[in-house]
Recover the amino acids of this structure.
């Protein structure tokens, strides 16, 4: 937003000063992990982002130590919105954890491929994987049937979660994937041979005990882009999220009063950095627009409509916005 302000103009509204003032209300949650980043504290022996960060922010909400604004805010171009506090996020991700370990039959250290666009269920499911100790493998919806088959076979994934648009691709290669046991679809409609996430989530209990994961225990796998050969697996342990505490504060200027919008696709590692670990370790609000494709007008209209304090996107995107007659947009918000 600061770069955009220099390009388009941004009045110093009371709303801006209110956000700056709230920065004074520092929490011990990011302070401790910043000390780990600096080397002043040892990496904890046990760490789980869901229980040690999300659930602790939930407790700060209950104790009145965090302002009453969303932890997660999703919108689309049809004016639909989803807003969750940390309390709601914790509750729904516990229900999702029971879906994975119950009807889906997945266990700790099993691997699950998650191929989904920017929809709220992605965030619930990755937190659910952390709570259960299931290793999650994000993938972009742009993956072809061949790409999906390769990733399932190389990783020996036992589960896959997709949105409606990827169901046919998975069904076309299912015979090749001998390790795959569970197929879960996030869709308004059910599909034959698939478990329907929304129905299972509604029926699931909200009580769940998070696994006690060691910091070095495997949590997450990303596949490389494959530009110089076949894509390769890159493993990340549970303490991975701690590493973004300092950079997200000093580089992205995040705090518990920030509304942070990162435009990355969930299949890319930038979403883990900037739409999951970095913002939530500081108690920031993760803002997401469904954004099936990049459109400068949609980005600019969203910035004028919602109280977004920080925008993170590619340099090409900033150039496209500047070239899109941007001077007619006015960024002035009220809480």
């Amino acid at each position: 937003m600061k770069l955009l302000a220099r390009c388009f103009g941004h009045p110093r509204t009371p709303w801006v000063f209110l956000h700056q003032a709230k920065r004074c209300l520092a929490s011990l949650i990011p302070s401790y992990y910043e000390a780990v980043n600096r080397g002043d504290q040892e990496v904890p022996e046990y760490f789980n982002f869901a229980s040690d960060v999300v659930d602790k922010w939930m407790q700060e909400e209950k104790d009145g130590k965090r302002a009453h604004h969303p932890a997660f805010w999703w919108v689309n171009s049809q004016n639909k919105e989803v807003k969750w506090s940390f309390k709601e996020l914790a509750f729904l991700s516990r229900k999702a954890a029971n879906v994975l370990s119950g009807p889906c039959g997945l266990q700790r250290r099993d691997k699950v491929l998650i191929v989904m666009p920017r929809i709220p269920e992605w965030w619930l499911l990755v937190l659910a994987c952390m709570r259960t100790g299931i290793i999650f493998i994000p993938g972009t919806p742009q993956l072809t049937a061949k790409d999906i088959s390769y990733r399932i076979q190389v990783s020996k994934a036992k589960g896959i979660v997709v949105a409606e648009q990827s169901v046919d691709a998975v069904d076309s290669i299912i015979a090749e994937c001998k390790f795959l046991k569970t197929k879960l679809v996030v869709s308004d409609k059910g599909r034959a041979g698939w478990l329907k996430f929304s129905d299972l989530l509604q029926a699931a209990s909200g009580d769940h005990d998070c696994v006690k994961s060691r910091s070095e225990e495997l949590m997450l796998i990303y596949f490389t882009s494959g530009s110089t050969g076949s894509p390769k697996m890159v493993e990340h342990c549970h303490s991975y999220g701690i590493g973004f505490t300092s950079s997200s504060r000093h580089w992205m200027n995040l705090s518990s009063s920030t509304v942070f919008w990162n435009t990355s696709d969930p299949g890319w590692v930038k979403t883990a950095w900037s739409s999951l670990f970095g913002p939530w370790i500081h108690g920031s609000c993760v803002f997401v627009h469904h954004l099936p494709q990049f459109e400068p007008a949609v980005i600019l209209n969203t910035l004028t409509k919602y109280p977004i304090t920080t925008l993170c996107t590619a340099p090409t995107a900033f150039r496209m916005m500047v070239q899109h007659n941007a001077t007619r947009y006015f960024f002035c918000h009220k809480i």
Observations:
- The chain is about 40% helix and 15% strand.
- Residues 146 and 193 are 20 Å apart (CA to CA).
